[in-house]
Amino acid sequence: MARIFSGARLVLATHNPGKVREIKDLLAPFSVDVVSAGELNLPEPEETETTFIGNAQLKALAAAKASGQPALADDSGLSVAALNGAPGIYSARWAGPAKDFSIAMKRVEQELQGKTDRTAKFVCALSLCWPDGHAENFEGEVRGRLVFPPRGNKGFGYDPIFVPVGHSTTFAEMEPAAKHAMSHRAKAFAQLVAACFKN
Ligand code: IMP
Q1: 87 by DSSP, 3-state: which?
Q2: Which segments within the chain are labelled E, that is strand?
Q3: How far is the CA of 23 from the centre of ligand 1 (A)?
């Protein structure tokens, strides 16, 4: 049995404004006061694990222990089939210290030169941790294909080059609600809610 989240306040263990926005949207139906690690000035731990789940748990545990409150972390990224899953857990790092995703998308395009397979997936691991060290972990993914040049200005990160299966627009061309209905984050979130949130 998963542990139920019964508090009134949840710390979002991320400094990424795009993730904060999407997770706040996904948590809107629940009466939870959401505060981000950035707003609490919590330090950003180094992501030293080798899997999405491992890094999500590392971030959630650090925030739960530092704040004394349950914390939710997201570790996610783009996994490109023809690049053996890269950038994967290094998705944020491909954007460099300035977090410039036009650079990261350019690098994906360059590394795909001469390769025909454009399939990719977004993966999202969510970890909900308590200050006593208890962790509940979930993972969701959405499959699609990559397009160049990037299209659209909604969303964040690699959204402008990702077209989900069955669609012709990129995540960055869709309304946020359309992305939320199918995204890797929404799928991981549905599992988290089913296991840990009472309706
Ligand atoms: P991390 O989980 O903080 O290591 O960062 C994951 C990176 O993957 C983000 O900075 C984004 O670049 C990328 N990423 C994760 N989820 C999405 C998404 O929904 N759309 C676009 N890019 C994403």
Answers
A1: strand
A2: 9-12, 33-36, 71-80, 119-129, 135-146, 162-164
A3: 13
| Amino acid in the structure at residue 84 | N
Look up 159 and say whether it is catalytic: no
Over the stretch 87-114, which tens digit does the pLDDT of each residue have?
Answer: 999 999 999 999 999 999 999 999 999 9
| CATH class of domain segment(s) 9-196 | alpha beta
Per DSSP, the residues of 139-154 read: EEEEEEEE-SS---SS
pLDDT tens-place string over residues 12-26: 998 888 888 888 888
Dist CA 149 CA 74 (whole Å)? 27
- Å from CA of 164 to ligand 1 middle: 15
Please name the amino acid found at residue 6: S
- pLDDT tens per residue across span 30-57: 889 999 998 999 988 999 999 999 999 9
What would the two tokens of residue 155 be?
């969303």
The answer to whether the pTM exceeds 0.90 is yes
Q: Tokens 């977090």 — which residue?
A: 99
Closest atom of ligand 1 to CA, residue 185: 19
Query: Which sequence spans correspond to the domains of the chain?
Result: 9-196
